[in-house]
Amino acid sequence: MKWFLLTLAAVVLSLEIVGVAEGVSSSLGYPVSGSYVSIPSQFVAVTSLALPILPYLSLSMFAGALLFGVISSTKAGPVDEARTPDVYQGFSRKSRDYLVLTAAVAIAAFLVWLPRSLQSLPIGGDTLFYISAIDTMNREGPLWALLYTDRPFFYLIIYGLQNLSGLSTVDFFRILPIILAASTTASVWFFVNLFYKEAAGYASLLMATSTSLMRTSIDLYASFFAAILLFLTLGIYLRYRQEMRARQRSLLWVMFVVILMSYWFVWALILVVLGLAEALSKEGAIRIKAFLAVALPSAGVLGLFVAVALMRPPPLYWGLGFSFALYLGKAITPVGPVTYTSASLDLSDLGLLQYNPVVPIFAVIGLFFYRPRNFEGRMIYIWSSIMLAFSLISTTGLHAALLIPLPVLAGMGLRKMVEAL
Amino acid sequence: MLAIAIMVIIVSAEFSAQFQVDFAVPWSPPSQAGLSELAWIRDHFGFDNPSVIIVVRDPSSYLWALAYNGGLIYFGNLLYLLSNRTDYSMLNNSDPQVRSDYIGSIQRLWTYGVLKKIDSGNYLILLPSALYNPDVLEVQALAAYGGGVLSVRQMTNVSLQKLFAAWTLARSTNDILGAARSYLAFNPIAYCITYSNWASTSSRTTVGVAQNFTNVFPCSLHVTAMAVKDLADYAFLNGTWNLKNESYIGFYFKGTADSTGTFFLTVLLGGAPNYTSYYYYDVIDKSLWDGKIHGLVLQLSFFQSRDSPDLSSISSVQFGVYSVEGGVFDYSLEYVVVAS
């Protein structure tokens, strides 16, 4: 039975591989012809008939898997036993891991480079805005980012990189998404490697090939940058939690402030995820205290920005500390505050992620096998639940949907399938 | 199983490659003429010039103008900017992209203190004509600058307010022709005595002289077209016109459509028999067919052409309906005029 199922899976995947490859080739202007060439294409067409219902299906499956994990969290998940201490990692194993990481980074870089090799004009609408922002900083100086944007650190980094590169702004935005894609893939590997080494390679490969990475690479550079900081900070926090070193605490202070000044929505997400996960720990009170010691300095920095915003309202200052209502669709204009976007229930952003159905399917499998029994598990469950909820709201949908840790869960799911079979 | 896991990764990579090819594309760029005008402004005034305000009014143009020119880009209707008023049709627009672009643009102008000093003479206000397509009333506030770019000319506050009032009235009544009559001298292309000479290009379209439906002209032309798929039938009037010195063609229109899919009114100026050379303009706006009276003024410079026609020897004026799905179109035309 096992071999029959594996053979069937291999045949289905082979047909998908050939069929989708024919589709990509045709889209690139090189249609494939031959006697049996239409069979895989027709197979892909038949399987894609399920795509319209996938958002609803995967929403139900994903929410169901989260609920199932919470209800049955007292049972040991297979992943808990799968953790392997560092001392058993041999040199060849480490080399293989780094080889997989290198392959994942190369695949991410290639997939993000691909459309840029085909287009002469900048890709994506927001790219045009970012080009004008960096050109404005080049004329008005870096202080512009602090005064007029809610992501000053992100803009300063991009501005610095553009100046270091020596490239024109337009050319710089051709390579920036490639760098960010490679960095995101590596940061996922770093994060997963800290609590489930065997799945780190799978997670990074699935991140490199996920629709969320592809969509982000089009023009959501601030989200890209924030996602990298998110994975790095969570990873550093996991280490700090085990070792409690002063150097790690200092690094976390810096990381929290950097995230706050790069994308405060993600900063708030980290605070809620880590705070709740710590509160649910056995030694909750002590853990919460240690967590607050790490997080409070960044809250103090935010307080400073809010104070500046109160003292110098628009149009004098538009920066961080003023921008909270933007996520609620509100803005300040010369004629006063206006609501320019109303929140509503919207599945379309979640549907975007279904373009590549492989990742959501394996993410559900990952959730099924990975229960919130330990801190990492609770963290991932809380993170997934919050972002799933926000992804259903029109005003936050796209950014929240892209922040659901699907590739991480899918990597764990795929790894578990390899172990089980 | 490891082999199957590798196959899963390959399938995932292929899906993502397909996604990239399908969706990682440039944000709908404007016409080449529009981009050339933005490039012309950048070449002559530099990037992010704080003394230059560029005016555009569609979301695609706004982002491209930001990227090409930076600095002060106003997204909206010119006369609202010139009279420093808030355009609530933009602020409360049903399209979220229009709302956010309008808000973004006025926030920037507000930050730089431009709005209060818009009439100070410190700013050169430029319109890339291929991107903005100013109407006949807006043109009254503009002058040619170079490279297809228009600039705002000096106006007194009284004349600006008068123009703004005429423009807003024209928008609210759908009668830009009526408002433009205060600024331009319009001449009919034909008088009622010759209206019986209007004919149709096929038996599917019937044409007849009818009573006027405005008080501007003594008669009107009534047309009923039973349009078939992918084919345009015309009502036409033959004659000889020299439109070389004219800039606009205008008319009153009242019509209803019974059709699904795409359809539009086409105005055609024939330069030679059998459609070998002509100018044409498609009025895409479907709200034209709401059964109410619309006064239109079209710029002859925005007409497209086929096979080098000559405006100094136009031999026919034609109105037709093109419909992808076919249908019944009932409409009336009155006061078909030209103006320089």
Notable traits:
heterodimer, A: 421 residues, mainly alpha, two-stranded antiparallel ribbon, 2 strands, globular, B: 340 residues, alpha+beta, Jelly Rolls, 2 domains, six-stranded antiparallel β-sheet, 17 strands
Order of helices and strands of chain B: HHEHEHHHEHEEHHEEEEEEEEEEEE
**Helix/sheet category of chain A:** mainly alpha
Q: In oligomeric terms, what are we looking at?
A: heterodimer
What is the string of helix and strand elements of chain A? HHHHHHHHHHHHHHHEEHHHHH
Let me know the average pLDDT of chain B. 91
User: Would you identify the CATH H-level superfamily of the largest domain in chain B?
Assistant: Galactose-binding domain-like
Beta-strand residue fraction of chain B = 25-35%
End-to-end Cα distance of chain B: 78 Å
Count helical runs of chain A.
Answer: 20
> Any idea what the radius of gyration of chain B is?
24 Å
Task: Provide the domain count of chain A.
Answer: 1
Structural class of chain B: alpha+beta
Determine the fraction of residues in helical runs of chain B and give it as a percent range. Answer: 25-40%
Morphology of chain A: globular
C-alpha Rg of chain A, in Å?
Answer: 23 Å
Bin the helical content of chain A. over 70%
Ends of chain A: how far apart?
Answer: 12 Å
